[in-house]
Design a protein that fits this description.
89 residues; alpha+beta; Immunoglobulin-like; six-stranded antiparallel sheet
Length: 89
């Protein structure tokens, strides 16, 4: 019930979903850099896969020579050749 009220407020007031609902925010710079905000944790990390837990989903990034340049409580930047990104449950 509370989630429905929050969704209605976001839609009606035209508020940012990432701020109010904690949705993951993904920003690409070409195929070689991605910044991810509002993630909760790192599940898998190697040079070909980075799997993250967000509030409402899991996010998996596949590529070559992937590297986490930095991460903190709010965001992280991954560089390397990014081949694809998938959302999961």
């Amino acid at each position: 019930m509370f989630e429905r009220v929050k969704m209605a407020a976001v839609e009606e007031l035209k508020l940012s979903r990432d701020v109010i609902l904690g949705e993951v925010l993904i920003s690409f710079v070409g195929r070689y850099s991605v910044t991810i905000e509002n993630y909760r944790g790192i599940l898998i990390y190697d040079d070909s896969t980075v799997k993250l837990q967000a509030k409402n989903c899991k996010l998996q990034i596949y590529g070559r020579r992937l590297h986490i340049d930095y991460y903190n409580y709010e965001e992280m930047r991954i560089t390397g050749q990014i081949l694809r990104l998938e959302f999961g449950d």
